[in-house]
Amino acid sequence: MQIAIFPTKAEMAQAAATMAAELLQDAIARKGRATFVAATGVSQFEFLDTLASAPGIDWTRTTMFHLDEYVGLPESHPASFRRYLKERLIERVRPGTVHLIEGDAPDPQAECRRLNRLIARHEIDVSFVGIGENGHLAFNDPPANFEGDDAYVVVELDEACRRQQLGEGWFASLEEAPRRAISMSIRQIMRSRAIVCTVPDRRKAQAVRDCFSGGVTPLHPASILQQHAHAYVFLDTDAASLLS
Question: In 45-63, which positions are buried (b, 16+ CB within 10 angstroms) versus exposed (e)?
Fold first, then answer.
């Protein structure tokens, strides 16, 4: 794992997007296609906007998977991550193939099995991720399951995670915030050839310190990134403010 700290959120986003573009271009050059995983949330706004404007990526030769989605939430809901990705990335760059999580599928476990069959056919060249205020990676809240082998799983969301979604303005009340989600597992994220982790804002500072200045533990799920040789963590000075 490598950590880079930037004075502003804009500079952080630019550096992360440059790295992401290079990884996609390299995969396309090596094997004709690139497969990537896209995350959502407030932390990804500037990064995805900058990446979508990056020159030199043949997006028609990319395949996109989706990191996580709420169970039971229709795409029409403002908090839908499918809606987020369509508006902020897919409709702008038009990846060649897109595999989204149908969070409102009648049977979430069957939806996981469908996604697991699809992703098993692909090597993931790069995953774009953030970390939560509780240190979660995707929707793997603490204590995270580091051992589960399935690529996609149904998870229970803890109150800290749901309060973060409320605080970011996605829901009008805590009661409206879903209690379950379909999430890419920790092991599947770690199977990526490379990981670009973008973490801005002071509200993430405690999670950054917990995950990146101590040992690896399921109590701080994103700490697992320390064990990935090609994980690149991009912070602004606010997010890095509690690091020694």
Answer: bbbbebbbebeebebebbb
